Amino acid sequence: MIKSAAKNLEMQQIKKSKDAAEDVLRLERVDKKTRAEESQEKIFKEAEIWLSKKQDLLKMSEVSLILDTYDDIFSDFDPRPYNQRALSDDMLVELKRATREGSSGVIEIKFLVPLHSRDLNYETLIKKRLKDHFRKHYTFESSEIDRTKKSGLIVAAAGLTLSILGAVLLPHSFENVFYNIIIVLIEPAAWFAIWNGFDLIFNSWKVRVPDMEFYNKMTKSNITFIPY
Predict the structure, then answer these.
(1) Does residue 57 surpass a pLDDT of 50?
(2) Which of 35, 75, 131, 212 lies in disulfide reach of 86, CB 3.0 to 4.6 Å?
(3) What is the DSSP string of 71-137?
């Protein structure tokens, strides 16, 4: 009986030890799960704060573009340095889309750059390259519009001259077949030149106006880089 009681007591102690060990393991698992949930919640909160800050930066200007690196501004196929490199078509398209309904005043362009990637020397070169590009293309579009209008004036003037010449030759056409043939050739040419000239003066150049206005806005814009 004494042995049986001692054995039962030993079994109870072993069971209690096992139960205690299981409780410890259970508490450790709960503690790990709690810490994991807290860590995950912390990560989510930090991500929300980061996204909120980025959204605030995007709202600070009329045009905001997020960059992974400075190379996003330039063409992938141009290996030249930043002060000579061609601009990215995608970036220009995005700028045109963003400024299409923008204000007529000075436009604020903000490039959001990762903090660890910032280089003030590069940013100075890039600002100058952007301004040079916008100024060059504004001058080109403006000169093309002027050239088109001048061409229209010349063509219209030529048409009017032909029309006057036809009127001068008209009285002689009844007496001379040669004059009659000249008038037949001059009249359609005169009308074509007049209408084509007026089209160049009043209509054809308008297709270049959106690009000219875009580059004009860009030449006057303020360009800044903001870390995120």
Answers:
(1) no
(2) 75
(3) GGGB-TT--S-TTTPPBPHHHHHHHHHHHTT--SSPPEEEEEE-GGG--HHHHHHHHHHHHHHHHHH
Q: Where are the domains of the chain?
A: 1-59, 71-88+117-221
Task: Please report, as a single letter, which amino acid is at residue 88.
Answer: S
Q: Give residue 228's pLDDT band: very low, low, confident or very high (50, 70, 90).
A: confident
Query: What is the residue whose two structure tokens read 């003037």?
Result: 157
pLDDT for res 183: 81
pTM above 0.85, yes or no: no
- HSE, CB side, 13 Å, CA atoms: give it for residue 20: 6
Scored b (16 or more CB within 10 A) or e, 112-126 reads bbeeeeeeeebbebb
Read off the pLDDT of residues 16-26 as tens digits, 9 standing for 90 and up.
565 655 665 66
Q: What are phi and psi for residue 181, nearest 5 degrees?
A: -65, -40
| Residue 25 pLDDT | 63
Q: Is 208 exposed, middle or buried (0-12, 13-18, 19+ CB in 10 A)?
A: middle
Cβ neighbors of 91 (< 8 A, separation 6 or more) are 65, 72, 73
Number of Cβ within a 10 Å radius of residue 129:
19
Cβ-contact 66, 54 below 8 angstroms = yes
CA distance 151 to 129: 33
